[in-house]
Design brief:
Helix content: 40-55%
Strand order of the largest sheet: 1-2-3-4
Oligomer: single chain
Mean pLDDT: 81
Order of helices and strands: HEEEE
Structural class: alpha+beta
Distance between the termini: 60 Å
Largest sheet: 4 strands, antiparallel
Number of helices: 1
Number of domains: 1
Shape: elongated
Number of strands: 4
Strand content: 15-25%
């Protein structure tokens, strides 16, 4: 009888261990998702500052600058930074531009603004 109780107890431990692993994985996934969401909002708010400055620069000069540093100090007080502290990325081509920060979406994908579509995305 003691052996039967031991087997029954062991069979109950396995599902509990599996549930614990699933809960830990769910917590990690939720943490990555919520952290990424917060970082995306940070990038968008900081990026809006650059978008506004780029629009003012273009209205005054007729084209976009080759670097964001040319916006400072007349159009922006500083180049916006990504959540990791690096300056926001900037590429200009064919009178359009892209602003981006690396490792934002789920902490490994970039998050960017495209002036052609006027939208943020991965």
């Amino acid at each position: 009888m003691n052996r039967r109780n031991h087997q029954r107890g062991a069979s109950q431990v396995i599902p509990l261990a599996i549930m614990a692993v699933v809960l830990v994985l769910a917590y990690v996934a939720l943490e990555l998702y919520s952290g990424g969401q917060k970082d995306m909002l940070t990038v968008e708010s900081r990026g809006l500052h650059m978008i506004t400055a780029l629009g003012s620069y273009k209205r005054e000069t007729g084209s976009y600058p080759d670097t964001l540093n040319k916006l400072v100090p007349k159009f922006a007080w500083a180049v916006s930074k990504c959540p990791n502290g690096e300056p926001i990325g900037y590429r200009v081509a064919a009178n359009e531009y892209v602003l981006s920060c690396q490792n934002i979406v789920f902490k490994y994908k970039p998050y960017s603004y495209d002036s052609r579509t006027k939208a943020w995305g991965e």
